[in-house]
């Protein structure tokens, strides 16, 4: 080091103008220590670290006395074991156009992913958490739509890109106080050229009742159609209901079981083995 090298050199002769060294001082003056550098502000100090900067490869974080970073014992998604399974299910059904574009392999993948969520979530008891059904739910997948008909596993008009009916968004609106259960469907009805397609929203109104810890029965009441788009100024109209003697047996009511649900996802199994996945809208 520099101080060691100085001890090997002869005592330099001071310049005439320099004051003579004190007899009590050392022959060689020890270089003064440089003043401690003022601590520089670390990049990003004072800001709350992002999850990416806090969580390491092992999913753990440590406390730093300099930055005062809070300790995360585990990432947020590890506190809910169902969360990664829900993401897996969403990934399995994404890009399937609610099931209309699903192949047999896609249906099997969605079924397996939904089963993992159901098993991890455990048994559903709607009698204790019925209020969680309240709200507007968006359908993101139905295994029955792979049949390419509007009725799913039931008979219904065909839908598809080259056919006169195109299916849009599908919602369920549930009111636990009034027991209203409405299926809301956006449709585009084809028309001869040069007439543009007609956009409508059909609301199939039902009443529901809980007939088990996780089973729901719905009873059909009426269908209301409202034009949207360029014809949105037209008033809604109600489609006449067929007499009970002329209606198919399955038209007026149906049953399904809620196999998983929380504040943002719901999975149901229909009476014809139809798997449906909803997210809160």
TrEMBL record:
Coiled coil: 93-120
Low complexity composition bias: residue spans: 1-10, 23-39
Superkingdom assignment: Eukaryota
TM ranges: none
Localization of this protein: Plastid
Pfam families: PAP_fibrillin (PF04755)
Residues annotated as domain Plastid lipid-associated protein/fibrillin conserved: 85-278
Gene Ontology, cellular component aspect: plastid
Keyword terms: Coiled coil, Plastid, Transit peptide
Basic residues bias (residue ranges): 40-50
Compositionally biased tracts (Pro residues): 11-22
Ranges where the record places region Disordered: 1-57
Chief subcellular location: plastid
PANTHER family tied to this protein: PLASTID-LIPID-ASSOCIATED PROTEIN 4, CHLOROPLASTIC-RELATED (PTHR31906)
UniProt record similarity statement: Belongs to the PAP/fibrillin family.
Name of the protein described by the UniProt record: Plastid lipid-associated protein/fibrillin conserved domain-containing protein
Source organism of this protein record: Eucalyptus grandis
């Amino acid at each position: 080091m520099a101080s060691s090298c100085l001890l090997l050199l002869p005592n330099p002769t001071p310049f005439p103008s320099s004051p003579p060294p004190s007899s009590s001082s050392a022959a060689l003056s020890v270089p003064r220590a440089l003043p401690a550098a003022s601590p520089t502000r670390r990049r990003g100090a004072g800001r709350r670290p992002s999850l990416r900067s806090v969580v390491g490869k092992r999913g753990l974080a440590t406390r730093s006395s300099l930055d005062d970073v809070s300790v995360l014992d585990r990432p947020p998604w590890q506190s809910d074991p169902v969360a990664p399974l829900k993401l897996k299910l969403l990934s399995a059904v994404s890009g399937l156009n609610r099931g209309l574009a699903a192949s047999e392999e896609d249906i099997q993948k969605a079924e397996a992913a939904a089963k993992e969520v159901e098993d991890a979530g455990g048994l559903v008891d709607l009698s204790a958490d019925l209020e969680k059904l309240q709200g507007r739910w968006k359908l993101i997948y139905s295994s029955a739509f792979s049949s390419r008909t509007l009725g799913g596993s039931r008979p219904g008009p065909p839908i598809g890109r080259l056919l006169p009916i195109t299916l849009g968004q599908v919602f369920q609106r549930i009111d636990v106080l009034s027991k209203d259960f409405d299926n809301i469907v956006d449709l585009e009805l084809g028309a001869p050229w040069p007439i543009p397609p007609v956009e409508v929203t059909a609301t199939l109104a039902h009443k529901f009742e809980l007939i088990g810890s996780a089973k729901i029965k719905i009873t059909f009441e009426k269908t209301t159609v409202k034009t949207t788009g360029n014809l949105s100024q037209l008033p809604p109209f109600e489609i006449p209901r067929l007499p009970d003697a002329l209606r198919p047996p399955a038209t007026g009511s149906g049953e399904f079981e809620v196999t998983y649900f929380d504040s943002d996802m719901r999975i149901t199994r229909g009476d014809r083995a139809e798997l449906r996945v909803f997210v809160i809208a």
